[in-house]
Amino acid sequence: MRSLRTAPPLPLVFLLMTAGAFGTKWSVKYNPQEICALNGSTVFMNGTFTHPEHLTVTETFWGIEPVQGEKKTDLSKDPDYSGRVKYLTNDQKHFSLKLSDVMKKDEHQFCFRIITNVEKERWTGVPGVQLRVTELRVEAPEEVTKGETANLTCKTTCSLIDPTFIWYKNVRPLTTKTIKNNQLHLQTVSSEDAGSYSCAVGGSQHLRSTAHSLRVRYPSKNISVSISASGEIVEGSSVNLTCSSDGNPPVNNYTWFKGSASVGEGKTYSIPNIRSEHSGEYTCQRRNEHGERNSTAVPINVKYPPKNISVSISPSGEIVEGSSVTLTCSSDGNPPVKNYTWFKEGGTSPNVRQTGASTAPPSDDESNSPVYANVTNVNQTDCCTPPPSDGGSIHLVYANVDTLMK
Length: 406
Hints:
Blueprint: H1 12-18, E1 27-30, E2 34-38, E3 43-50, E4 57-64, E5 85-89, E6 94-99, E7 109-116, E8 122-124, E9 129-134, E10 137-139, E11 143-145, E12 150-155, E13 165-169, E14 172-173, E15 178-180, E16 183-186, E17 195-201, E18 212-217, E19 224-227, E20 233-234, E21 239-244, E22 253-258, E23 261-265, E24 268-271, E25 280-288, E26 291-294, E27 298-300, E28 302-314, E29 319-320, E30 325-334, E31 341-344, E32 371-372, E33 379-385, E34 397-404
Parallel strand pairs: 2-9, 11-18, 20-28, 29-34
Antiparallel strand pairs: 1-3, 3-6, 4-7, 5-6, 7-8, 7-9, 10-12, 12-16, 13-14, 13-17, 15-16, 17-18, 19-21, 21-24, 22-23, 22-25, 25-26, 25-27, 28-30, 30-32, 31-33, 33-34
């Protein structure tokens, strides 16, 4: 007796494809089967379907991959998708789903559902279209040193289809840098490369990545010194010297020099009551981990009225009647004193001379030295004063001129 063997069960896919009693089989084909989309973008899910010829399609819609035992819900009636979906179907049995403003929570399989005039003749195209959602992210070092190279990469969590990457620096598109696939290559980095970088994909430029800040480390440069006082610096006033430059990392170490001598620390060097001895050339030295650099020397020239006034007599010792005597007035002032006025004690106006005295024509360096000739038997006192440069008080210095009769 011949034994009977049971044929193995047909695969489920085969059963799904052959359901229907007559002619054309059930089928749903998606193209593509998997989609990677940018967060916030719009995607289209496309496909074609066939059904047995004896059936009439009464309704089609899209839904999320069905879960065993749960009712298959029309996506357009789901509150999470309301206003974001649109169905497109034509007579050639082509269908599309337009999904706008894609979100991360939309990562599901989307399936096409077909309803016919026969209650039990319905079809769901599974597996559906797998949607994956990504955002763009710039992967790059936070800081590079001047002279090095740097690569910035526009990263995604899934593979976009034939993307064209666009790079931006400080919101403006980059056109002069090397862009290869999803990488931006910075060759020999300079301080000008520091800034905020972001990337986008062609056709979706409005969906840029979060900006990434790139810092460039470099030694101090363009060091300058500014002086708080404008115009002439007068003795007794306050003066501030401020050092500035554009080094990175920012410099916190400053040293001030007058000539070659260190005179202070800090970004600002203050002289609250400036004096004549503060005149000179000042430089600022800045230091960071990449080295040190000095500013150009800045001169300070303190103006002050005449002081330390003195009178000298030539010749020294006894003055004999009939000889010549020269009185010389010396003083310290800035600007240097050029005009001197001589007084004789008891006189009420400048340049008073005793009868018989005469002044030799002064040379350039002798304008402060009157000369008395044919000195008579007198006991007199002369004084001199330079004119004050600041409108202050007049300083008088007296010298006794005594003659010896022979």
